[in-house]
Amino acid sequence: MEKLRKAVSEIAYTQDHTKLTHLHRSLIPVLSFASSLYRLALSLRRSFYHYGLFTKHRLPVPVISVGNLTWGGNGKTPMVEFIARFLADSGISPLILTRGYAGGDEAKMLRRHLLGKPVKIGVGANRAAIAAHFFEKYGYVDPYSTSKYADGLNLGQKVGNHPSSQKIGAVVLDDGMQHWSLQRNLEILMINGLTLWGNCHLTPRGPLREPLNALRRADAAVLHHADLVSGQKLIDIELMLREVNKSVPIFFTKMDPCFFSDVGNVNSRKPLTALSNSIVLCVSAIGSADAFVKGMEKIGAFFVDRLEFSDHHIFQPKDIEMIRKKLRELEDAFGSKPVVIVTEKDYDRDPGIFKHLDHYEILALCSELKIIPCGERTEDSFKKLLKEGKLTR
């Protein structure tokens, strides 16, 4: 199954068919047929919502949706954390609603990062029902109930440990672009600057979950991994986005490496410079392995190798054997023990699995999302968009 997933992913992100193997090309007719069925199902679903056959739920607090048009690797979860942290620090207790893929690795990471903040996390496919449960348990604050909210959310007063801090003041919808059953006040679209739309086909023939004209629904577009993209390409991408949505604000973000943690003690911290002359093996099962590896190369390791699996892959004993074999090859080649680097998401999926590589040092790279200033498009202007942009009735 893992080999099939890799083959489908390679087809999806290869625009020139001549570069594919004969086996991969033989899969294209089947994938194209499946994409046609997906397009039909997508059209029917959209029509059902348009004509009221499917219900759209309105929550009693503002909803900020963070989503994308393609498979993983677009920075959705780091952006959700960024927004939740901003709201919490500004005096609003947010509820994060996430589907919880593959054992909830993203939810686990969010809980660790936001520990101590007045942030609640609800996990489940029926996010309207999950939200109703949290509203019943904690209550909610209607941000429009008094005149002081007339110009948007009141983000000036911090609630701290006040009892009202338990009440939910906003919802952040993780992976919400295609979750049409919840109405939202702000639609933030995340885009992977390294891969964009792949071959521009709908899934499973390509990586698109919706046609590109869905860009018109976005209130803000965020180009992630912008630090790994050339200046000219950023200009070209922005022009491409403007052709579909002329007025959408476009922001640039990156993952900023902070430190390493030992997988045996996630609370430990090692500086990035600790691996400046090391042999490194990047092991990942995330949506954008290229960005992870490029980030490690920028840190300054002596040599960086990689071993990657499909997004949300749950590591098995056979995978550990594969990793161990790769490590022995690197050790024989360079005469010193390599260090294994994983992402926090991979660590949170199964914290214990990497302990089976006990003869090697295993570190998790801890990073945080940063907004890259570009003219007037700064972190402050993005926060202003969150505060005032669409969070009014």
UniProtKB/TrEMBL annotation:
Arranged from A to Z, the UniProt key words for this protein are: ATP-binding, Kinase, Lipid A biosynthesis, Lipid biosynthesis, Lipid metabolism, Nucleotide-binding, Transferase
Look up the record and name the pathway of this protein. Glycolipid biosynthesis; lipid IV(A) biosynthesis; lipid IV(A) from (3R)-3-hydroxytetradecanoyl-[acyl-carrier-protein] and UDP-N-acetyl-alpha-D-glucosamine: step 6/6
Claim: Transferase is one of the keywords in the record: yes
Q: Does the keyword Nucleotide-binding apply?
A: yes
One of this protein's Pfam families, by short name? LpxK
InterPro entries cross-referenced by the UniProt entry: LpxK
Q: NCBIfam families of this UniProt entry?
A: lpxK
Know the name of this protein? Answer: tetraacyldisaccharide 4'-kinase
Where does this protein come from, organism-wise?
Answer: Pyrus ussuriensis x Pyrus communis
